[in-house]
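Re-run with default settings, no changes from the original entry. Doing this only to confirm the output is reproducible before filing.
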Amino acid sequence: MNRNQARAKAEALVARMTVEEAAGQLRYDAPAIDRLGVPAYNWWNEALHGVARAGTATSFPQAIGIAAGFDPELVERLGDVAATEGRAKYNAASKHGDRDIYKGLTFWSPNVNIFRDPRWGRGHETYGEDPLLTGALGVAYVKGLQGEGETMKSAACAKHYAVHSGPEALRHHFDAVASKKDMAETYLPAFHALVDAGVEAVMGAYNRTNGEPCCGSHELQRILRDEWGFEGHFVSDCWAIRDFHTGHMVTDTPEESAALALKEGCDVNCGNTYIYMMKALEQGLVTEAQIRKSCVRLFTCRYLLGLLDGSEFDAIPYEKVECAEHLAVADRASREACVLLKNDGLLPLDMEKIGTLGVIGPNANSRAALIGNYHGTSSRYVTVLEGLQDALEGRARVLYSQGCHLFKNRDENLAQPDDRLSEALAVAECSDAVVLVLGLDETLEGEEGDTGNAAASGDKADLLLPESQRKLMDAVLSVGKPTAIVLMAGSAIDLQRGAGDANAVLLTWYPGARGGRAVADILLGKTSPSGKLPVTFYHNEQLARMPEFTDYAMAGRTYRYLEEAPIWPFGYGLTYGDCRVTEARRMARGVEAVIENAGKADTDEVVQVYVQNEGSKNAPRNPRLAAFRRVHVPAGQRVTVALEIPAERLKVVDGEGRFVDEGTPVFFVGLGQPDARTAELTGHESVVVRE
């Protein structure tokens, strides 16, 4: 069934409803209309990195970790896994009359906001700081979730439209002011890409953007529907419409808020403000036609999903949930997510020389550090400690100490401060090598109030590890044993002090419920790390020189506008091979590159093409990502790859937000950015290609 056919069916059904029945269908928890054979439906479901919050499901790495793979093909496969499991769970639940929250097929994913500031707590829900990468991975996830047929396997949602990227504590009343240039160049491209890809839904953000609340913005709707041609449905973030009269103060009453949102194109209210819709109608604030228009959009979606007529997906059995095939895809994603930030040769660990391995740290045996936020439930969890224990059983002794609390100064309330430190030192002293597992979890960075997070409503005050972990790191490194730091976090952490003394640093993000197995595979050399940073890792002191967190101008932020060298740059990541781009040439539709692996280990690599428009006054300060491709490069071999670069990516954005041809494009082809810091860290420079 195509959209026109689904819309026709929706129009016929909605015409049979009373206006009160139609208004009731605009709630996220839409009630049944028994006389018309319409079952209840709850629009609220999540699938950020696997089906979430509805029991058992395959768990992928957190979105920021998925982004580190730079692998759209895999991301599309992950979307299909989530859709398949969502269908299996929906079929089972509805069979038993369960139509509760998190049981539907409208997934409020992916999050394609730009991770513009490292303090933002929700940044790990995104695909990073680059608009091209974010759009490419978002499109892939949408394709996977929705499928290619006329019946959607599930419905994806691009969120949070627009300019949503912190501060969390202010989001219910804050006005995010962004220039026309920054809107067109940074904040809107990923949403535009997802609309072009046919995303079914768009979610409005909590904040205002340039004066208008995002769930009631005439300008944002004009761009979305008139400029881009969006035909799907629009949903509010949860209780965002209530913010109109309690936070933004653009209306005085719930009826006025409901009316403003509906008239500006918000079809589904996540929250309860639309219970006032009939009062708004009585007061003449909305019309019956406006109510029915939104209702038709929603039933068009339900018909496209085959929820009212049935579909081939009704036959997907519950046994698809956490099946071996899906778990294997998740394992692959966990491996691709890991980014090797430093290695002096310690990794992979040579277990022929290591009889006792010390595993230390508050995230070493933490399930919370595996799963990120907006997560499902796994039937099994494999922590980093467990992954190493399983892999080394019968081969080496593994000693373990938690070392410290994640952020408190003691683990046991009645103990003295640093009560696990002596044990950690003992483990380090008895070990031939140490794996020190540090970082954060969703209680320290995340959405406001989502898990009762600590200070700053889930945002970070700085880029340092908690003091308890800094003490542990210093103490363990002072023992002098060969040490690899494993960092489990969803955002930039300043590890300068520890990284300088440690032999290796492996960033795993939040690698998924069974991610400890993939981490062990990399530490032990079963596979080569191949992830790249989708965000810049800044020095903590750089925060003081960056624009205020509340300033949405891009100057001074992200790799495109950074003015000083970071610790680890966007696009950076080492492997166990020794790869570099040896040749590159311009082709009619892009660039062709030759990658050589002079090392002894087979590895994946990510070829990256950056472009700078020489002579342009409107181009970003630094070269910007124009294309990328993940490739496999066997040891001692060369691989040739073609990267397509559409002409639109060579344009720059002027002060009025227009894409214009300006300057002469120069291409930089390599395995990271064409900056001095990347060259210093990798020992290789990009190949320059001119028109």
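The first strand starts at residue 29 and ends at 30. Residues 579-690 form a domain with the Immunoglobulin-like fold (CATH 2.60.40.10).
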